[in-house]
Each structure stands twice: as C-alpha cells, then as structure tokens.
Amino acid sequence: MSKQEKKGLVPERRFPEFRDAGEWQVTKLKRLAKRTTLRNADCCVTRVLTNSAEFGVVDQRDFFDKDIANQGNLDGYYVVEQGDYVYNPRVSTLAPVGPISKNKIGTGVMSPLYTVFRCDNSNNEFFEHYFKTAQWHTYMRFVSNSGARHDRMAITADDFMDMPLPAPKPEEQQKIADCLTSIDELITAQTQKLDALKTHKKGMMQQLFPAEGETVPRLRFPEFRDKGEWRTSIIKDIASVVTDYVANGSFQSLRENVEVFDSINFAFYVRLTDLRLGLGHKEQKYVNEASYRFLEKSALFGGELLMANIGANVGEVWQMPIMEMPATLAPNMIMAKFKSSFYTKYVYYFLNSDIGKDNISKAIGGGAHPKINKTDLKQVVVNFPNTLKEQQKISDCLASVDELITAQAQKLDALKTHKKGLMQQLFPDMNEVYA
Questions:
Q1: What CA–CA distance (Å, rounded) separates 50 from 41?
Q2: Distance between terminal CA atoms of the chain?
C-alpha cells in the first residue's frame, strides 16, 4: 500500500480547474474521523435508529412499523448525533459488505453491533458520496474474518478505522460533492414527481370505480352520466379461467395456427418475474417441445389477464402484452380470457383498484401459504358499466396516466444511471491500493 500512497491516484474524469492539481493522496479513515462509543447512560435517548442499505439512517419504528429494540434495555446502545456516520455490518444485495450512511435525521441510539464515527471536518459531503460507491468494498473483504457468519461482516474496529480513503485537496472534494449533491436533488425532485403521479392515479381509480355498496362511481365522464347504474358479475360468467400450464396432449393445432412458430424455442415460460421486469429481460426463459406440451387453450397470445395464485404475491394481476409468439403459464399463475362483451384492459384496472383488490382478497385462502385456486377466482365479483365504450374510456384514461408514470420512471432511472456513471469516473479506482 505504501507504494500506492507514493504514486497517488487520479480519477478518470476531473473538473477543468483541477486537471493540473496533481495526483490524489491516500489517507486512512482514522486520520479524518474518530470512533464514537458514547453509551446511552440511563436510557436518556429513546429514539432508536437503524441503518438501511436502501434508505440510509432512518427511525427504526418508521422502517419496521414497530420497535425492534427493547426500550427497557437501551443503555448499552451508542448515541448517534446528526452528522455522524454509521456502518452496519449486515450484508445484503444492495450492500454486499454492509452500508455506511450519514445520520441526517437527528440524535438517536443504535445497536452496539454498528460502528459509529465522526469526521473531524464538518465539510465531509465528499466522503458521504464516496461511501455510496463500491470502491471501499475490496478493503472490507480483505480484512474481514472469512469464518464469520455469512450475513454479517466481521471486522475489528482498528481494521475498520484503518480503511484507506482517497483524499484530494479540499477544494476538489467540495466540487465533487456539490456536483453529486445537485444530482441527488434532481433525483429527489423526480422521485417526488413520480410519487405524485402514482398518488394521482390511485385517487382517480378510487373515483372512477364505485365504492363498496355503491352502483355508480363518484367521477363519471359526461357522456355516460345518464347511462344508468353499473352492473356486477362474477368472473365465472364473463371469462374462462385456465390453470393448465403443463398439460399432456398435442399442440399440433397451436403450431398450425402460429406462423412464427419455432420448433425449438416456441414459447415463453411466463413467470411473475417476467411480467415485472418485462418479457424482453435477460433472464427470460424459453421452453421447448421436449420440455413441455401444451393444450391450445392454455397458450397466451397477448391481452389475457394473469394472476399469481400462491405465495407472497397471491392475487397480483397483470395483463399480457401482445406478442409475436405464444407463451404458457408458470405453475404459480392463473389465466383469464374474457368474453368479447368485456374490455379486458378495463377488468385489469378494476381488479387493481381498491374495490377490486378487496374482492380478490375475499377469495384468497389463508394458512401458511396463502393461495387462490381456479374455483375461488371464478367467484370474484367485477363491477362494470353497461357499455364497452365506457369501459374503454376508463381504461384509456388510466392508461394515459400509466404512460406518464412509465415515462417519469424512465427519466428517474436515467438520472440514477447518469449519477452511477459519474461516480465511477469522479472517484479513482481504489482496488490497486489493496493489491
């Protein structure tokens, strides 16, 4: 490491005024910060904080919807002040060596399993952003105890405070911090806009569909206000429900009816993951003639409604997009094909409304593994207007909001990707430090 310290580091991208400022130096965390181990004597502080990999330092009650810590035994907890940093050794997909986050929400206490440190210089936003990168992960893996439990890093306090950190001049640190903070502010603003659109859609759905016990919605398009009360029906009477995802039999008729049929890879094996990530995502699975045989009635060509019938996502409803080749159901899915007198997109939105979800929940069986079978799904009640035109009008309205939500989500993802790329370029590669 001493050789690397002498050589210094240079990031891939640098602001013009610092391009001739020389190489970055490498220092240790203990030279920039000190551990804080102040115990919560006499339980004076009762606000318990936690360090979430996704959300950073948050109130434990808000994060878990309850108190995890024993309020009567907080005297051994560390007091954490606003501005302190906290390392949580618990590993996760989002934080493969555990997260380091800055406390921005005020004084609280944290488990003594955490490591708390306070920077000597209050202008430390540079390191707040640095700890959101993966540059320090190699060091943590290098010094941790490989024999420790798999879900938690085992690292001594001395090794942690010996962590090498990049240390450009304060002016350059501030420039980088200001740049990344401005992007964070944009991300926050765009996230709020996305949340507002989702809230707007939820409010619209509450008004466009009748509430329980009512026969007309609170909000109705002008051209349909004199079209009378809505009707109700059970799914059994308006759709065919299929669960034959793997059926023995011939699929010759399916082959003859689909021009784009491929004798090797002819169908998607549609799972909940496929519907959430999109049918074009890289983990998409194909099935072939040798693996599965399908009856034509269980083939998906696009437009059908699918429902998760078991597990944590039971009752979740999706609509298949129009596809160029047929698909088939996964074992945890039920398919419903609606009659021509029903606009399927309308039923999709209804079943995703508050009243629709409530109707589905009544059909879900309890137990250790909640599930809804084909027979129960057929009894789910659907409320609908008298005409296809009104069904389509409602669907088109909500679909237009969905398009805005999708566009906003893509804009937000683009900003996050831009920030991730910038962070990779604004901080030098620290891996050689640990070589």
A1: 19
A2: 8
Task: Give kind and range of the element (H or E) at residue 296.
Answer: none
Q: Is the CB of residue 351 less than 8 Å from the CB of residue 358?
A: no
332-388 pLDDT, tens digit each: 778 888 888 889 999 999 999 999 999 999 999 877 778 888 899 999 999 999 899
Contact between 427 and 173 under an 8 Å Cβ cutoff? The reply is: no
Question: Of residues 241 and 266, which shows the higher confidence score?
Answer: 241
- What residue type is 22 in one-letter code? G
Locus of tokens 């560390």? 78
Q: Is there a domain that residue 341 lies in?
A: yes
Nearest to 298 by CA among 253, 339, 261: 253
Radius of gyration of the chain, Cα coordinates, nearest whole angstrom: 28
Residue 57 lies in a domain: yes
Domain boundary among 384, 401, 426: 384
Largest CA distance in the chain: 83
Count: domains in the chain: 3
- Measure the CA–CA gap between 298 and 246, rounded to whole angstroms: 8
Name the residue range of residue 58's domain.
27-137+150-164
pTM (two decimals): 0.80
Last residue of a domain, one of 384, 402, 426: 384
Closest C-alpha among 432, 356, 351, 404 to residue 194: 404
394: closest CA among 272, 227, 277? 227
